[in-house]
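User: Good morning. I'm curious how zinc ion would be positioned relative to this chain. Could you predict the structure with it bound?
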Amino acid sequence: MSWFMAEFDCPTHGRFESLLPRAEAAYTSSHGCPSCGVASARVLSAPKVGTVWGAAASHAKSNAPHENPAVLNTQPLADGMRYSDWKKKRREFRAEERRKEIKRELG
Ligand SMILES: [Zn+2]
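Assistant: Good morning! Here's the predicted structure, ligand included:
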């Protein structure tokens, strides 16, 4: 028999989890609270997905924006900057980075 973890919400004791036989899990809408035995309504729980996307989705936010200016940033385009201006800025940024690198190499 396989099992399914379902979450329920007791009006007094709050949320708790309970293992249900997978075959019955789809039809189970309430379960007795382990503390008081009161029938508690089933609630939907966010999946605990082991990926960056899953973690971001279950926390309902995306990653903080990158501070590193070398990381490609398309935010100005979304804010309405013209593509040609954006490309020009990228070109200037890379040229400046090259100049710095050459300076470093030459000591
Ligand atoms: Zn309870």
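The chain has a mean pLDDT of 84. Helices lie at 22-25, 52-58, 75-78, 83-106.
Let me know if you'd like a different ligand tried.
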